[in-house]
Here is the input.
Amino acid sequence: MNTAMVWFRRDLRIHDNAALWHALKAARRVHCVFVFDSDILDALPDKTDRRVEFIHASVGALRRTLESRGGGLHILAGSPRHLIPELAAELGAMTVYAARDYEPAAVERDAWVAERLTKAGRRLELVKDQVIFEADEILTAAGTPYHVFSPFKRAWLAKLDAFHLGTYPVEDLLGNLAPAAPRRMPALADMGFRSTDLIELGVQPGEAGGRARWEEFRERIDRYRETRDFPAVNAPSRLSVHLRFGTLSIRELARFAHEHAGEGADTWLSELIWRDFYQMLLARYPHITRHAFQSRFDALVWPNPPDHYQAWCEARTGYPIVDAAMRQLNQTGYMHNRLRMIAASFLVKDLHVDWRQGERYFAQKLLDYDLAANVGGWQWSAGVGTDAQPWFRIFNPVTQSEKFDPSGSFIRHFLPELAAVPDKFIHAPWKMTPTQRLACCIGSDYPPPLVDHTRARATTLALFRG
DNA sequence: TTTTGAGTTGTTCGA
DNA sequence: GTCGAACAACTCAAA
Here is the structure.
């Protein structure tokens, strides 16, 4: 009997699923499995985690879809290092298919599982699914990985063709799915987690949720370029969480963006290329999770003044755009991309805190948290990453605020204590005279600025000069 | 090997 | 208020 297994991880969908297609193509009986990984879940300090709920709901939806096609989903909880080889043996699956994951911990886990399977005469077959081009597919003429985005993007676009954007026709082969014994799905509480406000926040998990969001964004894509930098506008795709957990296919999104003419789609496609770029860098240079990409900056000692990090986390720096951004993150698990840059630049270059602390904080809070993209973004903001112009990258939080939240409507939404502050002062409320402070008292209703930007900027430049 | 052009998302200063 | 130049000078990628 020709039997295979598909191990779902961050590809929680059926449509255009590479691992599922390869298994269905190769075997007459295909078992599907998902493992709630206790090695990851047990380490999470906060048991009210929207990501766990997103995964849990998406896995439930995946099981219902598989069952409606005559198949099923084995849902287990524990360490996949043992559970995957055991289940493969129990089901008689010779090959386990899975989508390749480029995070160092996943690479190590997969090598471990592969070795176990091999010893038992089976094998783990990892296939490309999360990116358009993997680390060894886009190289310079010298055969080395790109370290600069623009030439990487040119090479990426030059290599793009119908083959790399093609859809795996999974739907044609679903007759090979094997059912799973009907077992109750583990509840969130069984794993020690509580339910969250995910649905109230408007996040729809699962493949259907991703598709709904995608259809809604396609209506707005032509305006993406002009509107994407304004956090008060519904401009971003908000698809990052679906790409993170694979409830949408990157090939489907990239193909649409590539075929859809216009500046909006081109700009958005660039963002998808950035995603491939950072995945490639992490796969090639796994040490960048803890060390500066540019080694000459790795020894840089950040002053990290006491209380600065805490004030930033708790949205009380006294700079409205930064605090509003941090409230958006703390309250909703999401932060607009422009604000991620402003908040990151402020923590590192105004508050002089090590970028790794900010990266870890985002890791705790972001629903769409992706190690590769987050590390890449923080290193770029800190000026220690793949491009070398730190003096260009010290955002002025007031100028950025005036430019990208001109009416202050985003600020007022997340900082209602500033609602009555006149437009003229919304970006820098400490400039109000005592009589103007009736609307909001700086010092009691809202904190005074934690640092002086001009002085903090000078300190950063000196720090980089060495 | 050497040379050349370019580098996501900016800010500040002085006219 | 608006405009252009300076910022500081390095690394990458391709010719």
Observations:
- Residues 140-142, 144, 146-148, 151, 294, 386-389, 391-392, 465 of chain A lie near DNA strand C (CB under 10 Å from a C1').
- The two ends of chain A are 66 Å apart (CA to CA).
- The mean pLDDT of chain A is 95.
